[in-house]
Amino acid sequence: MMACLQVVTVFLAVSCCICQDSNAFRLRNPILRGPATALRKSIVDFHCMVERDRDDDRNLFYELYKVNDTQSKGMFSTLDNDQPEAKFPVWIKPTHEGYYYCKASVQNRSEVMPTYSSHHYLAVIEPVEGAHVRSDPSPHELFEGTTLRLSCSITKGSHVSYTWFFNGRPVVDGIAQNTMSVHNTTITDSGDYVCFASNAVENTSIYTSNSSTSITIKEIPREVKVSFTVVKERDGHYWAQVVCRSVGGTPPITFALFNNSEGIDEQNTEHLNATFLVPIDLDQHMGELMCQASNGKTPQHSSPMRLEAVRVGGALVMTYERIMDDNFQVIRLQFHCQVERGTLPLYRWFLNNVPLTMRGPSHWVWSQDNSTLLVDLNPTSNRLPVMVVAVVFGCFFFLVTVLTGCCFYGIYKWKHNPDKLSRQNGRSTEMDDMKATCISEGNKDCGENTSVAKEVGADDLEGEYVDEWPEIEEPWN
Ligand SMILES: *[C@@H]1O[C@H](CO)[C@@H](O)[C@H](O)[C@H]1NC(C)=O
Ligand SMILES: *[C@@H]1O[C@H](CO)[C@@H](O)[C@H](O)[C@H]1NC(C)=O
Ligand SMILES: *[C@@H]1O[C@H](CO)[C@@H](O)[C@H](O)[C@H]1NC(C)=O
Ligand SMILES: *[C@@H]1O[C@H](CO)[C@@H](O)[C@H](O)[C@H]1NC(C)=O
Ligand SMILES: *[C@@H]1O[C@H](CO)[C@@H](O)[C@H](O)[C@H]1NC(C)=O
Ligand SMILES: *[C@@H]1O[C@H](CO)[C@@H](O)[C@H](O)[C@H]1NC(C)=O
Ligand SMILES: *[C@@H]1O[C@H](CO)[C@@H](O)[C@H](O)[C@H]1NC(C)=O
Ligand SMILES: *[C@@H]1O[C@H](CO)[C@@H](O)[C@H](O)[C@H]1NC(C)=O
């Protein structure tokens, strides 16, 4: 019985001892610490340690490995060192980038299973250098509507991040690492683009390199238009002064003038317009003019325009409307002048043979190329016989149009002053070749020289009218 008990005790003691021993032999996993980034050609330290009980005094053996690399990057034995923590200095090369782990084992006890740390990534930083922005397409000028692509290359550097700036402001859209793109560009995309490349080691050392490029987005000419005026030379020849213009377009622009789709002339200009002189004959169809504007991309065309200079001619009709107030009192007369032939005639109005300014206290001429005259009637004044006479001249002005007629409006006593009107007529020397027929309300013919005249009798005007018109100084010329 005693022996039996002894055997059991010994067995328990042994088994307990084995049990204790096997507990002690189970190593915990080591913890690897180290930098996440390291500068190339520098020395960084990795640290590895197994957490142990205070009374555990066995010597441990540590090794540092890179994943997929059989050769250890360092060894450390607590036997040779006082510190409990292993330290592995590593001289960093570009190939050192990758995952690391450390292995811990009990010194000279190969039967104890070694343990391993989790992986730790080390990025090897090569300071960025030599950033350079390139645009694609490579010319730094491109047309609106196209796509601008910029790429930033570097001569050196790893783990580089890129920031793009446009005219000093960070770009958010269309960036992907070292490239950026702007689709469907407009002229507002012209400016300076900067690529800012940077990398850093452990937030402490920051390396940067930047490069900028200036990009010009060229605008294509828009809304090309052709127009002409007629110029009379002293020798009696007529010229069409043809103006081609576009609304936008980055200069230089080449304007080409076509007659019936046959090129006549071409001009390269820094402006948005060009002027061509084309000899013409009056009253003849001289072809269809068309302008083309181009600054390198698709040429833009104007719509065709008939080149024809027609003299003033035919009848001139003057009409008027009464404008009444709420009490059906005529307060205003609105005269209209209409010539039968001629393109956009110029109208001038006269009162008692005195030219009217655009605006006066009692009248208002819309504009010279508008045939409307407004006359205010003063209800308090005496009712007077009123006669309205309109005269048309043809003349060429430096205006957008071929043909200019002049409508003279006068309120005066026609019978007393017919010569005065003729004198006005004669003063405008350029108008001599224009003829028109006069139509009065009574179909009164005013004669060829007087061109067109129209008179309105006092009885036609139901309002009352001030005979006293203001002095108008500006002479008709
Ligand atoms: C290690 O090698 C294996 C197989 O060769 C591969 O699948 C794995 O991606 C590699 N790991 C690293 C971190 O390179
Ligand atoms: C432990 O092993 C190392 C080699 O791993 C050897 O150099 C050393 O002599 C051994 N120490 C003892 C006490 O066995
Ligand atoms: C490009 O932009 C213009 C105006 O900015 C727009 O009219 C046009 O539809 C755009 N084209 C495309 C393909 O997005
Ligand atoms: C580096 O910066 C990041 C974010 O700014 C921060 O989370 C990290 O702790 C920093 N690392 C060091 C070593 O300072
Ligand atoms: C850009 O690079 C130039 C040298 O190339 C440097 O003088 C300038 O300071 C840099 N700009 C920034 C914002 O880092
Ligand atoms: C043409 O453009 C220039 C400059 O913009 C301007 O001075 C000139 O008046 C224009 N000519 C015509 C005929 O529009
Ligand atoms: C335009 O071409 C036609 C023939 O196609 C010609 O008769 C006419 O004189 C030309 N006009 C000018 C302004 O050159
Ligand atoms: C003259 O101008 C006025 C005001 O703009 C307009 O109502 C009228 O139709 C114009 N008349 C002509 C003949 O252009």
Question: Any chance you could write out the topology, listing elements then pairs?
Answer:
Blueprint: H1 2-24, E1 31-33, E2 37-39, E3 43-49, E4 60-66, E5 74-77, E6 86-91, E7 98-106, E8 115-116, E9 120-125, E10 132-136, E11 141-143, E12 148-153, E13 161-166, E14 169-170, E15 175-176, E16 179-182, E17 191-201, E18 205-218, E19 225-232, E20 238-245, E21 253-259, E22 262-269, E23 273-280, E24 285-294, E25 300-301, E26 305-308, E27 313-324, E28 330-341, E29 350-351, E30 354-355, E31 363-365, E32 372-376, E33 388-389, E34 392-395, E35 404-407, E36 410-411, H2 418-427, E37 437-438
Parallel strand pairs: 2-9, 11-18, 27-37
Antiparallel strand pairs: 1-3, 3-6, 4-5, 4-7, 7-8, 7-9, 10-12, 12-16, 13-14, 13-17, 15-16, 17-18, 19-20, 20-23, 21-22, 21-24, 24-25, 24-26, 27-28, 28-32, 29-30, 31-32, 33-36, 34-35
The chain binds 2-acetamido-2-deoxy-beta-D-glucopyranose (8 copies).
Transmembrane segments: 386-412
Domain Ig-like: 114-216
Signal peptide: 1-19
